[in-house]
Design goal:
The chain is α/β, with parallel strands linked by helices. It has 2 domains: about 1-170, 2-Layer Sandwich (VC0802-like); about 185-335, Rossmann fold, CATH 3.40.50. It has 9 helices and 16 strands. It has a 7-stranded mixed beta sheet, sandwiched between helices. Strand 8 (about 140-145) and strand 9 (about 150-155) form a beta hairpin. The two termini are about 40 Å apart. It binds S-adenosylmethionine (SAM). S-adenosylmethionine binds near residues 207, 211 and 227.
Length: about 350
């Protein structure tokens, strides 16, 4: 038996639980923050549960942490003593490692201390047992979720939590002059799918206006052809490597095998988007990569995803589908042309 805290994007926790139920038969669930954070009780051990999750990573599960210690909140310094004792008990797991402390809380938690005060105290304990407290690139994360009456604490490698951000909430700094918030989605996809956009040469951006995704690819040194009947942001014309085809994507004629990266964030009916992308296949090199957002139009996201996957798999291999932190009513597909 093992227990876990799972987190999904707001309103999508029930789908994450549905996926987990299929992967881990007999798992049971209790909601901790409505539609977002839940407690999972798995009938199998920690390592077996984790391997099952990593083997078939759920699309809607943003973050998962084991519950190695359950602490009833007293509302006094005793809570911090219990967390410190947990670290000292687990010395062997932390010693000699770069260790990060992540603290999240539900709005109704009786835990009094701020995240930064708690982190300050626990960082000192980590140093005392020979670990190096860090914020970035940790080897191990101590993750604490403060629910109404209990602290759920567990530790593991970032990969085993599906993210190295607290609760999988990836925060990027908004830049001066940033064209759209949509840019964060493509940035997050780069990390989440372990891609390096700079390793591609020519990108096709379908449904590109106002140009957040295009701007990122241009900054990474690619030449970008952007298709959109709407205006692109004027700052993009400073790049000699930028071409705007001001048309509907169904009307364009492109060179064969001209692009090794296709990105598409059209926010459209999933089936129409599939047809459009499949019709543009000829313009991609063999093995070209594609990053596509899939709009979840109606109340059955898992079915929509299955249907889109089936359609696109006539021309592409689906490498991963994931609801990213920056996705709203959508998921992102990472594909490779067959
Ligand atoms: C959500 S916006 C894209 C935002 C963009 N990724 C960014 O970073 O700024 C969707 C765009 O898709 C475009 N679009 C919708 N249908 C299209 C089609 N059939 N052909 C080309 N563009 C289309 C819309 O004009 C709109 O500008």
């Amino acid at each position: 038996m093992s227990q876990w805290i799972g987190t999904a994007n707001q309103k999508y926790a029930s789908y994450a639980m549905e996926e987990l139920r299929r992967i881990i038969p007999g798992a049971s669930f209790a909601q901790l923050a409505a539609g977002e954070v839940f407690l999972m009780t798995s009938p199998i051990a920690k390592t077996d549960t984790l391997s099952a999750i990593l083997r078939q990573e759920p699309i809607f599960l943003r973050h998962i942490q084991p519950v190695d210690r359950l602490i009833e909140i007293c509302g006094s310094a005793n809570d911090l003593d219990e967390l410190s004792a947990m670290i000292r008990h687990s010395r062997l797991a932390f010693e000699g490692k770069r260790a990060a402390v992540h603290i999240r809380r539900s709005s109704k938690s009786a835990f009094h201390y701020s995240a930064s005060d708690t982190k300050g105290i626990l960082d000192a304990v980590l140093e005392e047992i020979g670990a190096e407290p860090v914020v970035q690139q940790p080897d191990i994360i101590l993750s604490i979720y403060a629910a109404a009456d209990f602290l759920y604490a567990g530790f593991g490698a970032p990969r085993d939590m599906l993210s190295d951000w607290p609760g999988g909430a990836v925060r990027f700094q908004r830049e001066e002059g940033q064209i759209s918030r949509a840019k964060f989605k493509l940035l997050e996809a780069e990390r989440s799918f372990s891609l390096q956009y700079a390793s591609f040469r020519r990108a096709l951006d379908v449904g590109a206006a106002p140009g957040g995704w295009t701007s990122l690819l241009l900054e990474r040194g690619l030449s970008v052809t952007s298709i959109d009947p709407a205006e692109m942001h004027e700052s993009l014309s400073a790049y000699p490597t930028f071409t705007h085809v001001k048309k509907n994507a169904s009307e364009v004629k492109l060179k064969e095998a001209a692009f090794d990266l296709l990105v598409c964030d059209m926010s459209w009916s999933p089936m129409l988007m599939c047809r459009l992308i499949l019709d543009l296949q000829y313009a991609l090199t063999r093995d070209a990569t594609a990053i596509i957002t899939v709009k979840l139009m109606h109340r059955k996201p898992l079915q929509t995803i299955r249907e889109v996957k089936e359609r696109l798999e006539t021309g592409f291999r689906l490498l991963k589908a994931k609801q990213l932190f920056h996705n709203r009513e959508e998921v992102t597909f990472h594909l490779q042309r067959k």
